[in-house]
Amino acid sequence: MDDRPLLLPLLDEALTRRGWLEPADVEAAAREARVPLAQAWEAVRFYPRYRTEPAEKRLLLVDDPVVRARDFARLWAELEDAAPRAEARAGTVYSQGLEAVGPALVIEEGARWRVFAPVQVADLRALAVGKLPPHELETLPAELARNDGVLFEAPDPLPEFPGADALIAAVRDAGLRGLGGALFPTWRKLEAVRSAAGAKYVVVNGDESEPGNFKDRWLMEHNPRLVWAGAALAARAVGARTVYFYVRGEYPAALERVEAARTALEGEGYFEGLETHTFRGGGLYVCGEESALLESLEGRRAEPRLKPPYPAQAGLFGRPTLVNNVETLAHLAWIAAHGAEAYRERRPKLFSISGDVARPGVYELPLGTPLAEALEAAGGGLDGLQAVLMGGAAGTFLRLPDAAELPLDFEAPKLSGDAVGPGALVAFGADRDLWAVAEGIAAFFAHESCGKCFPCSLGTPHLHAAVARRERGPQLEELFLALEQGSLCGLGQAAPWAVRSLIRRFEGVRT
Amino acid sequence: MSKVPLVIDGYLVQAEPGETLLDAARRAGVEVPTLCHHERTGTRGLCRLCVVEVEGWGRPVPACATEVQPNLVVRTETEALADLRRVVLELLALETDLSLDTGTQALLERYHARPERWGAPLAARREREPVQDNPFFVRDYAKCYTCRRCIDACGEGVQGVWAYATTGRGHAAVPGTPLDLPLPETPCVFCGNCVQVCPTGALTPLAELAAAEGGDA
């Protein structure tokens, strides 16, 4: 086993100490992590938080599909106007899991990151005279869990390990799949890692950065014990001794609460025989891609690896690694406690519902729930809605009422990219500009491209430019195909899905 | 070990076990286009020009990073692949100064690329100033499309000195040096491997540049 300290936490220590990184800090971190200085520098020049000079104060408008459909332009104009007078720089930051409570503003001062939501035009104007917006938000409000979901309850008692055979069989019989969006049968990953010899790892993917999704954020902030229980059970099932919980870099409250739950569970003896770690993620969308996440844990640029080999074969430090999403492991813990049959009767799934609904929030609904019913649960009547963005930025627009009866289930999609995915549903009223949403999504992909493969790094800026021009036609279709068929990972492959679905399903509705 | 039989563009090929589709195709006389791959470096799967279709598989796969398997049916030149390659080449030519890169110029012709149909460049690559920080070669990143051969040849792949580092993300990703130091202040030993493997002329010996300028005059 590799006992070298990890690079990113070393850089973070220096960053916290000084507020930015000096060359000597980077050299010291590289030495301690025993990596070439070049590798440490690649990390510094990749992850946005590793500044190499004192940071100026920044006012960052959170840019997500909900605000794009509403008054993004107006809020932005106001912020740009107010920022210089507040002696700060105006900027934007992509989705922060705040779609249900936005519009949101981040004030960044040194390493301090304060979130305010909801904010209004008047609040932004008041920034110019030094007044902070009235509603500061440290965590997602716990009440955003809107119904009586079993996944919203802390595990009591903590589930016992039923043995590897029994647990994997239960996960298989339950029909659990990867709920980060990939929907891969969980038991097969468990089996693959279990059958591998030697040292292995379990990694919890808490890098929820898919716009429109906030259910993992809710779980990490309000029910981390359930997720840790799932991770520990999975580790025992596959025979891994070490667990890393990778928490999205911009979710400080989630990081704190995941770590607090870890310490508590360790104190209770639940992790006996296991080594557990909480890890602050790199702070980029691509970090959620499982192999990029592993690269980032290893202290490199978070760039997706070529597959095969898959992480179950060669993952963290080349060892077999089980990488599972936060929600998946919460389900696994519940299955261990209540059995496959009880699970199959419920078929629970978390949905992040936002946009033009009366009660945006996290809903636990049975898989197979028709789309209209899910929206109604959140107080969204069909009559006022024209569309739903399903899945997230790497998702598609569904047209209403055409898609009203669509069952939200794992079934095969109609259009490439149509999938329940991680479970985001962003609803848009009749007067919302879907092209503005698509433009925001295209900008997001161009910003988040890691720069490894050519189709994505070259194609996403041009996709953004084309969507900004409201372009359609055969040449744009060529770009869609180059991205979808040519890109190395899911980021570039998914980049055209939303805008393509908009053109195919809504063409003629709005020009 | 016994050979691996597979079909590439209709030809039955007896490949070596462990060989890539790219090498198997080459030995069968099928030239699959590629930019980032180099036999001496570990760079692969980046440019995506070498993606090929395999019957029964979903997305096309990079030939340079896919091992042969018995009885695969591979197509290296279809209309869909040509369309994909054309788009990538066009955007590449739009954004990058390929004036010294005769290999890519030939590919642009082969795929009838028309970069101008994508409008103006967006990546600001062409505005990068050449870096002349050593007596041997110039680093002109207006000509660089970040295939990372130089980085790999310097680090993991060949020399093991790590005088280069990839900096930036997305279209702004570009080779740089640790702490952004001038090359002579890095572990660089001026072995010249990076210049050797550079396909674009972004790394060009000063002597060659001088000769070219002299020739023009």
Automatic annotation (TrEMBL), chain B:
Residues 2-80 form the 2Fe-2S ferredoxin-type domain. Residues 135-164, 177-208 form the 4Fe-4S ferredoxin-type domain. Keywords: 4Fe-4S, Iron, Iron-sulfur, Metal-binding, Repeat. One of its GO terms (molecular function) is 4 iron, 4 sulfur cluster binding. InterPro entries: 2Fe-2S_ferredoxin-like_sf, 2Fe-2S_ferredoxin-type, 4Fe4S_Fe-S-bd, 4Fe4S_Fe_S_CS, PSI_iron-sulfur_center. Pfam families: Fer2_4 (PF13510), Fer4_7 (PF12838). This is 2Fe-2S iron-sulfur cluster binding domain-containing protein. The lineage of its organism: Bacteria, Thermotogati, Deinococcota, Deinococci, Thermales.
